[in-house]
Design a protein that fits this description.
The complex is a heterodimer.
Chain A: E1 11-14, H1 15-29, E2 33-37, H2 53-57, E3 62-64, H3 69-81, E4 85-89, H4 100-107, H5 110-113, E5 123-128, H6 143-147, E6 153-155, H7 160-172, E7 177-182, E8 189-192, E9 207-210, E10 215-219, H8 224-234, E11 241-245, E12 248-250, H9 254-264, E13 267-274, H10 279-291, E14 300-304, H11 315-318, H12 322-330, H13 348-351
Helix pairs in contact in A: 1-7, 3-4, 8-12, 9-10
Chain B: H1 47-72, H2 86-94, E1 101-103, H3 109-114, H4 119-122, H5 124-127, H6 136-139, H7 151-164, E2 171-176, H8 183-195, E3 199-205, E4 208-209, E5 212-213, H9 226-230, E6 234-238, H10 242-257, E7 263-268, H11 287-294, H12 298-308, H13 314-335, H14 356-371
Parallel strand pairs in B: 1-2, 2-3, 3-7, 6-7
Antiparallel strand pairs in B: 4-5
Helix pairs in contact in B: 1-2, 1-12, 1-13, 2-10, 7-8
Classes of the chains: A alpha/beta, B alpha/beta.
Bound molecules: thiamine diphosphate.
The site of thiamine diphosphate has 14 residues of chain B, from strand 4.
């Protein structure tokens, strides 16, 4: 969507390529970085996100493991204890569940139980979310489970630039990071120069992708394009929507979210994960606690239904789409008088190469 | 109609000839547990080693009785005693070199102490002041592990990482008989064998997982047999014969260090005390059974061997006993002092840097403590509590 800037080598790159490049650059810079998982070596991962790493760095640095998620994450714990920085791939969202015990019982609390003596610089890459017609167990949005576990960071990119920048930050982090990759966006493209990747904010910062004064859409990962599309469509209704891409769910950027909601007075949280017990409830309650007197309407959620992820032929009814987002915006009690306030145009980075 | 149902349409290509994997090391364990004490082979054993093992066994027994007594005084929340299993604990710690790593379970505080840990620090988890009271890097002892068998893949990962770095470091991981039923046991052994990781797995088969006897835990001929399916040797050893356990583990460690890959060692022993001080063992076993095992006590076995060979006199026995008493008295005294705890440290080690959310919550607790007059004045206004690394 962005045009190539003059004098750079920006070419269309996919999110999968940017992720791969992030691992490649991290491995080249730091011999402690090791990639391991199922099919990550010779095959380059089922989504080709680790393509070429085994060839370039050898099987000791990019390792096809036995088929065992607890074993992958459990051995990564031991590797981290010995000074390595493992990057593990969980093949699909729902196949990370066998590794939950290691994540919850050890990865997330090893630093804490050892009073800081044993950090766990592990990156856990999890392709997640629906919209690709996957069969059962290939489309879950498990972020609420991860968010309920103190001691891990939870991040999710929505743009090509963030895919690279956030993954570099995750690998460089001395804390464990669950890195959720929206598989629906793996093949989304943007003009992006792998030789001079633009700097992106690190873990913990949200970004305003679209400026607006009527209401704030708060979203992340696969739902960002949906919200941006909804915001464009809303112009016809006279609504000027601000769109926030959270990028990092833990830590959570209260500051950016609250600054926006205090200005707009209205907020809708949009995600694919289920509504009940999902991240939206937490976000809505944080906003209510901090911005109550600025709110013109209750904070609404547009989320997946509270059902096990549906079969592919029905997923279109489950996933929050543009219409559902616009319906929610319409329910924000528009009788109140609102005036679009001044808001600067987003930078090229903020507007997001999608 | 499926393809298979159409006559003549299914033409399987013959599979290529199956090639069994060959390994020069015999994988199957012996039918009887390996023993040294009381056999002719024991005459070959180094007297210095035997005396060292004896000293540690005597101290280990005294440590177990002292720690159990501390639970009755309310100084320890809980203590899983290793009385009767001291030979495994001592041998595990002494079979390793200093650069090696030990991965203990919650029952293995004694092994950690023999490895050099301060007993008070090793008991922090059980006293309840912090989860791990020591820096694992200092003596290369991983945190005492409470969830069953989850430390086994850690041992594999660490050993694998060490080998990738070119260090000849071995990891020894300890697990109970019940823990061998967990999925992590399988995954760890499989990874270790495929990666030929320098790991030794020590199963202390003490007969029970809380109340459940081995027969209800597994149908395998022995736990050592489980090794065969992974492609690593399984060794069966008398877990009350400290010389035998030490030898079998030392061989396995040497084999791992030389690049020979992992070994699974099953030490057959018995838990003389209940599972913990909170458990009533009379519900699931008889006094007669316990008495049979008391007659096979690891400390007595070694003492008989040493006195029989005139390597141990009354004076040395008394000297070792006195050393054990001094250790127990020191432990008692230090454990009877109240630990100094800093509640603000709760927020210090969750992440490298505190999140905004944790800073808010820390401020809340600090305000509560200040209002209650419970915050030592020195701590007020400290920007970031606790040690960072
Ligand atoms: C994953 C897990 N499940 C259950 C428990 C509760 N539990 C603690 S000890 C124990 C029995 C363990 O028996 P075994 O492995 O034989 O070791 P032992 O206590 O005999 O040394 C159980 C069930 C636990 N700690 N971890």
């Amino acid at each position: 969507m962005t045009t190539a800037a003059v004098g750079t080598d920006r070419k269309p790159a996919t999110m999968a390529q940017a992720l791969c490049r992030a691992m490649r650059d991290a491995m080249a810079e730091d011999p402690a970085v090791h990639v391991l998982g199922e099919d990550v070596g010779t095959a380059g991962g089922v989504f080709r996100v680790t393509d070429g790493l085994a060839k370039e760095f050898g099987e000791d640095r990019c390792t096809d493991t036995p088929l065992a998620e607890a074993g992958i994450l459990g051995t990564a714990v031991g590797m981290a204890m010995y000074g390595l920085r493992p990057v593990v791939e969980m093949q699909f969202d729902a196949f990370a569940y066998p590794a939950f015990e290691q994540l919850v019982s050890h990865v997330s609390r090893m630093r804490n139980r050892t009073r800081g003596a044993m950090p766990m610089p592990i990156t856990i890459r999890v392709p997640y979310g629906g919209g690709i017609g996957g069969v059962e167990h290939h489309s879950d949005s498990s972020e609420a489970y991860y968010l309920a576990t103190p001691g891990i960071h939870v991040v999710t990119p929505a743009t090509v630039a963030d895919a690279y920048g956030l993954l570099r930050a995750a690998i460089a982090s001395d804390d464990p990071v669950v890195f959720l990759e929206p598989k629906r966006l793996y093949w989304s493209k943007a003009d992006w120069d792998p030789e001079r990747p633009e700097p992106v904010p690190g873990i913990g910062r949200a970004v305003v992708r679209r400026r607006g004064g009527s209401a704030t859409l708060i979203t992340y990962g696969p739902s960002l394009p949906v919200c941006l599309e909804a915001a464009e469509a809303a112009v016809a209704e006279g609504w000027d929507l601000e769109v926030i891409d959270l990028r990092s769910l833990m830590p959570f950027d209260d500051e950016t979210v609250c600054a926006s909601v205090r200005r707009t007075g209205r907020a809708v949280v949009v995600h694919e994960a289920t509504s009940f017990g999902g991240p939206g409830g937490e976000i809505a309650s944080r906003i209510t606690e901090r911005c109550f007197h600025h709110l013109e309407a209750p904070v609404l959620r547009v989320a997946g239904f509270d059902i096990p992820y549906p079969p592919p032929m029905l997923e279109k009814h489950h996933l929050p789409g543009v219409d559902r987002v616009l319906d929610a915006v319409a329910r924000l009690q528009w009788e109140a008088d609102w005036t679009a306030t001044d808001h600067p145009t987003p930078t090229a980075y903020e507007s997001g190469a999608r | 109609m499926t393809v298979l149902e159409q006559p003549g349409s299914y033409r399987p290509t013959p599979p290529p000839a199956w090639q069994p994997r060959t390994d020069p090391v015999p994988l199957l364990p012996d039918a009887e547990p390996f023993r040294l004490l009381g056999t002719e082979a024991a005459a070959e054993l180094d007297p210095q080693l035997l005396l060292r093992l004896y000293g540690q066994l005597v101290r280990g027994r005294r440590y177990n009785t002292q720690a159990t007594a501390l639970t009755r005084q309310g100084r320890l929340a809980v203590y899983p005693s290793s009385t009767g299993q001291e030979a495994c604990e001592v041998a595990a710690a002494l079979a390793l070199e200093e650069r090696d790593w030990l991965f203990p379970s919650y029952r293995d505080t004694l092994a950690a102490i023999v490895r050099g840990l301060d007993p008070v620090q090793a008991l922090t988890l059980l006293r309840g002041d912090w989860h791990t009271g020591y820096d694992p890097h200092e003596h290369r002892v991983a945190p005492l592990c409470t969830p069953l068998a989850t430390q086994l893949p850690h041992a594999v990962g660490l050993a694998h990482a060490a080998r990738l770095k070119g260090d000849d470091v071995v990891a020894l991981a300890m697990v109970g008989d019940g823990g061998t039923s967990e999925g992590d046991f399988h995954e760890a052994l499989n990874f270790a064998a495929v990666w030929r990781a320098p790991v030794v797995f020590l199963v202390q088969n003490n007969g029970f997982a809380i109340s459940v006897p081995l027969a209800k835990q597994t149908a395998a001929p022995s736990l050592a047999h489980k090794a065969v399916g992974y492609g690593m040797p399984g060794r069966l050893v008398d877990g009350n014969d400290v010389a035998a356990v030490h030898q079998v583990l030392s061989e396995a460690v040497a084999r791992a260090r030389a690049g020979g890959g992992p070994t699974l060692v099953e030490a057959v022993t018995y838990r003389i005390d209940a599972h913990t001080n909170a458990d009533d063992a009379t519900r699931y076993r008889t006094d007669a059974e316990v008495e049979t095992w008391r007659a096979h006590d690891p400390v007595d076995l070694l003492r008989r061997e040493l006195t029989g060979r005139k390597l141990l006199d009354e004076a040395t026995i008394r000297a070792e006993q006195d050393a054990a008493e001094r250790m127990a008295a020191d432990l008692r005294e230090r454990m009877n002092q109240d630990p100094e705890l800093d509640p603000m440290e709760l927020f210090s080690h969750v992440y490298t840097q505190q999140t905004a959310q944790l800073r808010e919550q820390a401020a809340q607790l600090r305000a509560e403590l200040t209002a209650a007059g419970e915050l030592p004045a020195a701590q007020e206004g400290r920007p970031q509590e606790g040690r960072q690394r």
